[in-house]
Amino acid sequence: MQKLLSLFTVVFVLATATVVSRQPGQPILTDRVPCRDGFAAGFPCRGIDLLAQVSLAELGASGAEIKANKHWGWRDPQTGRDIVLFGLTNATSFVDITDREHPIVLGLLPSHQGVSEYRDMVVNGSYLYVVADTPAQHGLQVFDLTQLRGVPNPPVTFAESAHYAGFVAGHSLWMDQATGYLYVFRSVGDACQNGVHVVNVQNPLQPTFAGCFGQTDTPLSTGECLVYEGPDHDYHGHEVCFVGSDDNVSIFDVTNKSQPQQVANFTYPGIARAHQGDLTADRRYWLLGDMMDEHHTGNNTRTYAFDISDLDHPVVLGHFSHSTTAIDHDLLIVGTRVFEANWRAGLRILDISSLPGLDFREMGYFDTVPDSDSIGHTGAFAPYVWPDGAVTVSDTESGLFILRPAANQQYLPVLRVR
User: Fold this and answer.
1) Chain centre distance of CA 322
2) How far is it, in rounded angstroms, from Cα 166 to Cα 200?
3) Taking the CB of residue 191, how many other CB atoms lie within 10 A of it?
4) Contacts of 211 (CB under 8 A, 6+ apart)
5) How far apart are CA 175 and CA 129, in angstroms?
6) CA–CA distance, 389 with 339 (Å, rounded to integer)
7) Dihedral-angle region of residue 335 (phi above 0 means left; psi in -120 to 50 means alpha; beta otherwise)
8) What is the pLDDT of residues 183-240, one digit of tens each?
9) Is 214 in contact with 187 (CB distance < 8 Å)?
10) Chain centroid offset of residue 34 CA
11) Which of 53, 210, 331, 391 is 20 to 30 A from 73 via CA?
12) What is this structure's pTM?
């Protein structure tokens, strides 16, 4: 059966290869554009090819005022198809990128309420959870991703599968699939006072309130929570959260949801707005981006590094300075590479194998904003690394980019879970 499906895919792509206009539900046909002489389809680059680009209009943006924000990925465990879960200011768009060079927009999940500059999403098994930052009554959307199998006549408009109204707005999310707890950072309209609102989603369609923490660290940006198995044996088996806020970074033991404990609270030289970070696979180091240090001090883009091998006593290692002046945003670590979406400087890939030293090397880049590396909050918002090494980037003004690092930039890819 799989061979028949593969044959059908090949025949379908060949049959549609002469299509010039992009019709709804048909593959968005592009030719892979290699990075040559510093450019790919007019975008500055080094060592990264452009496989495809999906514009905001093709993603379902209904007008020029609709922009993009966060995106994530889901591999359907039954079909093996890869789906981009793409945030727009008024909806979540679903794009099948199984064929990396011929993405298909499957449809939209409209916002529960209103338009929000920031939208975030996480996956728990086959369920998607979505928050928005500013609508008065958005809460938490729940969507059954199995509805994306065999969508007839895409793109279509989907309906949410369930809704949780324990808060009215949230800035960002983290899902710990190992425990079944969802973390809503900077929740509004609840008892958590702009802290972290913890939701039990062990029953995916019936979320329940589990607790709060971080109220004294507000305003928070985002964080990463996991069952800890790192070098600090005192915390093995505990559920630990690493959190960034405007004027500090902190570590919490949230094993007991009714009595979370702060493990560490610290700052670093140059802190302006600690934003988002990621842990190395061995849980020894934490890399972090600060969204306002470039704006406040005029320094080049910085990636900060901490040694967290002793959770009670983190060590500030310092920072790596990039060659650009753009503001950094979201980053992901895969193996010894960090993938950063740095607003107007686009995607940057760094080799961080020198840790604890900070002699990082830029392995490649793809600049989604060709005419500017200046300070500003438009451009590359977030990266996602796929199991085959492809990288997707959401750009606030230009939509979805599907990219491929050159062969000499290979690293050990893993499927991201959050």
Assistant:
1) 21
2) 12
3) 13
4) 198, 254, 257, 258, 260
5) 9
6) 12
7) left
8) 999 888 888 988 899 999 999 999 999 999 988 877 778 899 999 999 999 999 999 9
9) no
10) 25
11) 210
12) 0.89
